[in-house]
Write a structure and sequence with these properties.
Blueprint (H helix, E strand, L loop, with lengths): L11 H7 L1 H31 L13 H6 L4 H13 L1 H17 L12 H31 L1 H8 L18 H19 L3 H18 L8 H5 L14 H10 L14 H6 L15
Helix pairs in contact: 2-5, 2-9, 4-5, 6-7, 6-8, 6-9
Length: about 290
């Protein structure tokens, strides 16, 4: 296979793209973790110094500190997130992706330093296609995780122990949950769209930053939301603010009334009748 041939010209990028273990194994693992933890540090740092001035306000009589005390301890959330992003299963996925990556998206992969304008436009379209398709897959797998009692009880309920999300607890989930909601949708989207590996890396950066942001508790009225495309100015383009998923955690357990399943595109919930806001949504569990 073309991707297994090591270039003799000493070009690092060409060598990287031609080596499956680097291109599809190490690459996604490193990119995902750098993007994820940089987002966590940025958001948690701002939250620490700015306190409640950037956080979502539900006009509750309970302060943010009081609400966080009822959540799983920060150390437990951090450990769960570390295991999800950097633990044994994440490391074993390096080997798995190195094997299936070249099979799902066959090479050779052209060196982007010599890419034409047409190629750049095509890869840009693939990038946005990945984002749209992955969020669509996520909507249905997420809705299934709530609608199926077995899946919710044994797979997804662990993540919903958190009712006041924060960036550190983004990866506080079972391994089966991470696979169902994140791993499989990402791989399926890439297999369909057939992106260049670097386009896939860019998609992972966007995807992980998005996931951290929606679990951050940061209000769309905050300047910090602008960095993650979560401010009010983006709502008109069908993009969901952080409030969308924050409300999902606060008001949707295993229930036929669970709402707000999508993460990025609010129109998915609108089309399928699962869109709600804190003004109309009430907590109902079964």
């Amino acid at each position: 296979m073309g991707t297994e041939m090591i270039p003799a010209d000493g070009d690092f990028l060409a060598t990287w793209l031609a080596t499956p273990f680097l291109c599809w194994g190490i690459g996604p693992y490193v990119v995902l973790n750098i993007s994820f933890w940089m987002s966590v540090v940025l958001i948690e740092g701002v939250n620490f110094f700015a306190k409640s001035s950037v956080l979502i306000d539900y006009a509750s009589s309970r302060t943010m500190e009081e609400r966080l005390k009822s959540e799983p301890p920060l150390s437990e959330q951090l450990f769960g997130t570390l295991m999800t992003t950097m633990g044994p299963v994440a490391i074993s996925n390096v080997v798995l992706l190195a094997k299936i990556g070249p099979w799902l998206i066959p090479g050779p992969y052209p060196n982007p330093t010599s890419a034409s304008f047409t190629t750049l436009v095509a890869e840009s379209a693939k990038f946005f296609g990945l984002i749209l398709l992955k969020d669509s897959f996520y909507y249905f797998t997420h809705r299934m995780a709530h609608g199926c009692e077995f899946l919710y009880k044994h797979v997804h309920s662990h993540h919903h122990k958190i009712h006041t999300p924060r960036a550190t607890g983004t990866g506080f989930m079972t391994l089966a949950d991470a696979t169902l909601l994140e791993g499989l949708p990402c791989i399926a989207s890439a297999a369909i769209i057939q992106p260049h590996p670097l386009t896939f890396y860019a998609f992972l950066v966007s995807r992980t930053a998005e996931s951290v942001s929606i679990h951050s508790g940061v209000s769309c009225d905050s300047w910090l939301a602008v960095l993650f495309l979560k401010s009010r100015m983006f709502l008109a383009f069908g993009l969901a603010g952080n409030e969308h998923h924050d409300q999902h955690h606060k008001f949707s357990d295993r229930s036929i009334n669970a709402k707000n399943f999508a993460e990025r595109f609010i129109f998915l919930d609108y089309l399928f009748g699962t869109l709600s806001t804190v003004r109309t949504q009430t907590k109902s569990t079964s």
